[in-house]
Amino acid sequence: MRDFLAVSLFLLICTFRTIICQDAQPVSRLCSDDPKYGSNSYPYFGSRTLYKHVRGELPRTRAHMRGCRPLYVYIVARHGSRYPHKGIHAKNERLFQLARQLNTLGTATLCSKDIQALRNWRVWTNSSINRNQTDYGDEEVRGIARRFKRMLPELFPENANPNKYSFLSSDVSRTVDSMQVFAEEILGQRTNEANLEVEGENATPSIIRSYKKCRKYQTQIFDNDDRFLQFNRFLLGNRGFGSRARSLIATRLGVPIGIITKKLVFIFYEICYLQQRVETVNGPWCSLFSRLDLKMFEYASDLKETGLRSSVNEVTYQQSCPLAKDIIGNLNDAMEADRTGADHPMGAFRFGHVTTILSVGENLGLIQTGNPLRNGDYFVSKNTRFRSSRIIPSAGNLAFVLYKCENARSNNNRYSVEVYHNEKLVVPPSCSRFVEWDGNYFCPMHDFLRRYEEFIPGSRRECNFEKICRVRRN
Hints:
This protein is of the alpha/beta class. It contains 17 helices and 9 strands. It has helices spanning 2-21, 88-99, 112-120, 135-151, 173-187, 210-213, 215-222, 229-236, 241-253, 262-279, 291-309, 315-318, 321-340, 354-363, 388-391, 445-451, 465-469; strands at residues 68-78, 165-170, 196-199, 347-352, 397-405, 415-421, 424-426, 435-437, 440-444. Strands 1, 2, 3, 4, 5, 6, 7, 8 and 9 form a 9-stranded mixed sheet that branches. Helix 4 runs parallel beside helix 5 and helix 8 (229-236) runs antiparallel to helix 11 (291-309). The N and C termini lie far apart (84 Å).
């Protein structure tokens, strides 16, 4: 009995001594540079993901396409990586104050290197920033222009007439910047000769942001109080991920759990990905999250996106009718002009937003959002689940390239099209498989236009934006 008491007293003393000494020698179990921990090895942040982590590899040249030449290219792209809204500055200052309190309990499980990095962290925003495109965002868009120019040199000759290209962006500074840097990359010093158009709020029809003009979309989707219900349940519910993350982060930081609210957990994540978008590397606040944590937040982002854009309500994608007609109509016009020997433009370039890309991609059957995700669907197969990281990153884009092939086996196959999503070749739903000749793979324009007849201006099935967006009165 005496031995038992002696051992118990010894263990109690050791435990007490460990607790009071932990501030001087914090427990080092988790460290951001540990690949098993993973916060620096998981780059997917939903629609805030940097383009470099998602894009495919365009062919470096089309010289191998014997007998085929490109006639026209149409690219619609989201703006590049941007600064956060000006309200984020107050959140940054809040974290700066919190950083002074780290490890007050002496029990932090983050390694000393990460704790020190957080203590040394400084506010990197100011109250004047407001969603402008970053320098890195400029480079994302410039890179897209550079790679398509390299793949299609016939459409981007050095002496090209600037009026051979059509440019259009929304009237937001970041999309205007995207249009400008894209034009500079393909035209060089002759950008001032090009017609760079900006679509104002009163544009009719609106091609870039038709969802802003669609009353049915605004009332049934955007202004619907339940649109973020599943997101809030997953992140903020009593049994949601936010509750679990709150406890984990308090332990990692060595602070009382009462300091860490569920909303503060999301602010940590927000500052993590926002600093990445500006500086292209994870900031110290990313060290709070394991690889699994970041995957869970990515899923939360998907819940939010499908709440706004699920195909269950057809208006979420049908409202992009004006942009779909701009795409298909321009491709058709270029083909018809070539048939008759008439002059025609060589390219059209449009710059918009997340909804711009996602809605028209789904309208054309090139992107699938499926049914809305629900709070408990995290373990749905990633091969079938909607993932905004892969679909609509910064500078996410769709590209359509029209070709004329003299060696086609039939007149119906003479004009063909290739479609790229984030620089990856995709098969349009009009083509169960690409037609092949001489080792080349194309979707015949004959099949392509038959599938998209509703988007050909003047066709008997032409989609009607006003009809799509009309709200019926009860």
